[in-house]
From TrEMBL:
Domain annotation Acyltransferase: ranges: 9-337
UniProt protein name: Acyltransferase 3 domain-containing protein
One Gene Ontology MF term: acyltransferase activity, transferring groups other than amino-acyl groups
Transmembrane segments: 52-73, 94-111, 131-159, 171-188, 194-212, 224-243, 255-274, 286-303, 323-342
Record-linked InterPro entries: Acyl_transf_3_dom
Pfam families recorded: Acyl_transf_3
The species this protein was found in: Companilactobacillus ginsenosidimutans
Keywords: Membrane, Transmembrane, Transmembrane helix
Length: 375
């Protein structure tokens, strides 16, 4: 029997780190957004920048998370069956939390429309979007990242065929086209290849992960290049963020999905994959459940109450706010992983029950058939 490959704990830690960046972004976006708006309105622009210090980190985390998938899967032959099973597993996890929180939301009479000012007047059943998003999470794009990731998994068999048939030069040309269209064009308000959040940026990150695994020699030189990429591009990101918030007085910064965020992610990714491989059972176990952090914290019924609880509105010292925010996010992530471990045990028991039931039915049919023959 073929042994399951042991995952490099450096990369599994990077997976968790990417989710930390995503969740810190949400802390700034949802937990500190109202504070930042008031600070901007009152002319306290530097304080507004401080209150949104984690805001630019979200897309860096998204890029890294998908690069890991490309690193592991990009050079493999993935069948339609494997792709479908992976998509179903993701959807099962997603649907579990969507339905659970839907029942909780209905039981406690939580709002069925969290963002009425953002609704599309042409959307059918517009008065209960939370129910639609919970019952049909992919169709109504409950979580953009999950929707894009599931679509990526469905096209991976075909994407990998192309990537493994073309040579290095052709992949470089493909990457150039993809990076320009999905990470530079959006900075110019050109979303023809991808919205600010969408499948295009996810596919680009996947191809980069595959390219690094297949063509880059990983060691001290790649570690140094990664450090250079990460430092330079993170500095550029925060310079642009500072300009957007303090000069343009606009907190929805343009850098969410952009070239600099992508290059920062490439740099951080290179740093971790260049390290000597290590193995830690606990770390690898937690990393398997880290996706649940996104599913739980970004649930349509959870998002507002959660970040309202951790907005720290009674604290005026913004350094303390951000430190407490980091601690809160780490605690939230740990709790979400623990919840998902319980969820996985429930799924495992249900799977065992289905297997036992099937075996029982087969045995019963065999018993009936053998008795009929005797008769």
């Amino acid at each position: 029997m073929k042994k399951k490959a042991i995952r490099n704990s450096n990369i599994e830690f990077l997976r968790m780190f990417s989710m930390l960046l995503i969740t810190l972004h949400h802390f700034s976006l949802w937990g500190q957004g109202d504070r930042a708006d008031k600070l901007i309105t009152n002319g306290h622009l530097i304080d507004a920048f401080k209150s949104l210090i984690y805001l630019p980190l979200g897309d860096i985390g998204v890029y890294i998370f998908v690069m890991i998938t490309g690193f592991y899967l990009g050079n493999k032959i993935v069948t339609n069956g494997q792709s479908l099973r992976k998509s179903v597993n993701i959807y099962g996890q997603l649907y579990f939390y969507s339905v659970i929180f839907l029942f909780i939301g209905l039981s406690y009479h939580l709002p069925l429309d969290n963002f009425p000012n953002l609704r599309d007047p042409l959307m059918p059943f517009n008065h209960v979007p939370n129910i639609l998003m919970s019952v049909f999470p992919i169709v109504f794009n409950h979580y953009w990242f999950v929707t894009a990731f599931v679509l990526l998994m469905l096209i991976v068999p075909y994407l990998n065929i192309v990537l493994n048939r073309i040579d290095k030069r052709q992949i470089q040309i493909l990457l150039f086209i993809s990076i320009v269209s999905t990470s530079i064009f959006p900075l110019l308000n050109n979303n023809v290849a991808s919205e600010s959040v969408g499948l295009g940026v996810v596919v680009t990150a996947y191809i980069i992960g595959m390219y690094i695994k297949k063509f880059c020699s990983l060691g001290k030189s790649s570690f140094g290049i990664g450090m250079l990429f990460a430092i330079i591009n993170i500095i550029l990101i925060y310079v642009i963020t500072y300009y957007d918030i303090t000069i343009l007085k606009y907190r929805y910064i343009r850098i969410y999905t952009g070239f600099f965020a992508l290059m920062s992610a490439v740099g951080i990714f290179l740093i971790f994959v260049s390290l000597k491989p290590r193995f830690n059972f606990i770390l690898n176990k937690l990393a398997k459940h880290i996706f649940a952090v996104y599913l739980i914290t970004e649930n349509i019924f959870v998002i507002k109450p959660l970040w309202k609880m951790f907005s720290f509105n009674n604290i005026t010292d913004l350094i303390k706010v951000n430190v407490f925010g980091l601690i809160a996010v780490l605690a939230i992530m740990l709790c979400a992983c623990c919840i998902d471990i319980i969820r996985s045990q429930i799924f495992r028991m249900l799977s065992s029950l289905v297997t036992v039931t099937k075996q029982g039915i087969i045995l019963f049919k065999a018993y009936v058939m053998s008795n009929n023959k005797k008769v």
